[in-house]
Amino acid sequence: MRLKPITPTLRCPECSKLLTTAETLAKHLATGHTKPVFVCHVCGKNASKKSALARHIRNVHEKRRDFVCEYCERAFSEKSILASHRRTHTGELAYICEQCGSMFKTMASLCIHRKVHSNTYSHLCPYCPSRFKWKSQLIGHKFTHTGEKRHYCSICNKGFGVKCDLTRHMHTHSNVKPFKCHLCTASFSQKRYMNKHIKVQHKEGGAQGVLMTDPCVPNISYNDYAKVNNGV
Fold first, then answer.
1. pLDDT for the residue numbered 231
2. Residue 155's pLDDT is what?
3. Average of pLDDT values for 95-109?
4. FRET partner for 6 with CA separation of 20 to 30 A, picked from 43, 80, 181, 199?
């Protein structure tokens, strides 16, 4: 039986961070809000620990990259960063979601995934009452209000608000169809076309507001997604 993780309930009075126990809160207050005593002689940056200052000088000012990937020879400043990068070559899934068992290559990916299990919508649209779990959702949604286009197709000059939408659009100029229907042999250049096919042809997914998963704008409705992409 999978144990449920402890929900943080104690809030730091200084920065509002949530902690799980009185001990972790006390440690956080002692290390996170004490007056910095170590100052970088190059840029004046403050650090609460001598080791943190040494790491800052080594990585930022000396630009040392002592940890080299044996697969691609790319160099990194920290051993932990190299370990995370190495998984892009090995495919190792070292980080597991304690709630659903999903596995990820990096801690950052796991942290992003964890929002799937929360009901916190902390990213607010400045133009309307919409709220989102992920910042990427908000960024994509805001373009439905501003119409801003930052990325343009080199073939047809079509504009997009976010780069991953442009990447997705480029499939329309090739024969690449990476999204395959799990119920038949049909394949599609874009995931939204596959989802619509499954909903219409196989009667799955329910109403038009069905949610879809996307690495750029996750869990956004077809209607809103179409506005973001302007009919990719």
1. 40
2. 93
3. 87
4. 80
* Residue 206: band (very low, low, confident or very high) from pLDDT cuts 50, 70, 90: very low
The two three-digit tokens of residue 41, written as one number: 């002689």
For residue 232, what are its two tokens?
């990719």
Q: What is the pLDDT of residue 213?
A: 40
Looking only at the bridges linking them, the beta strands covering 123-124 and 38-39 are unpaired
60/40 Cα distance (integer angstroms):
11
Which residue carries 């001990």 as its tokens? 23
Which helix (H) or strand (E) is 25 found in, with range?
helix 22-32
Length of the chain: 232
Per-residue burial over 124-137, b = 16 or more CB atoms within 10 Å of its CB, e = otherwise: eeeeeebebbbebb
Question: b/e per residue, 66-100, with b = 16+ CB within 10 A?
Answer: ebeeeeeeeebbeeeebebbbeeeeeeeebeeeee
Domains annotated on the chain, with CATH: 67-117 (3.30.160.60), 123-229 (3.30.160.60)
Contact 178, 164 (CB under 8 A): no
Handedness of CA 89, 94, 96, 102 (dihedral sign): positive
Structure confidence at residue 205 as a pLDDT band (50, 70, 90): low
Q: How far is CA 113 from CA 108, 219, 225, 226, in A?
A: 9, 12, 20, 24
Q: 159 by DSSP, 3-state: which? A: strand
CA 93, CA 211: separation in Å to the nearest integer? 26
Supply the pTM of this predicted model: 0.44
